[in-house]
Known about the structure:
51% of the residues lie in helices and 10% in strands. The protein has 117 residues and is mainly alpha-helical.
Amino acid sequence: MGYYKHMIEGIFGNKTAEKILLHLFHYHEIYAAAIAHDYNESIHPVQRQLERFERAGVLVSKLMGKTRVYRFNPKSPFMKPIQAIVEIAYESIALNDREKLFGERRRPRKKGKVVST
Length: 117
């Protein structure tokens, strides 16, 4: 990740926060199991950090079926500054590393769309 490799971790205090913010920046909405899966980690620290961000007002969530989906809180005065910091770190990740990390599809396919193999 170059110069900014651990910038978000240093600002927010842990690697889990860094992973969550990068995923939110890329996908716009995310759920704990997806982040845990992408990093091959336990879901519990991810859930705890998501809950901390929500309590702080940085994120908001909604239930979609049984899954709690998180996104940046558009009403938070911290949203734009946090996104600006995350964007700097995100842009410092080499493109091939970004493709590996964020290569998994997170949105459902349009009804009737053919899946290419």
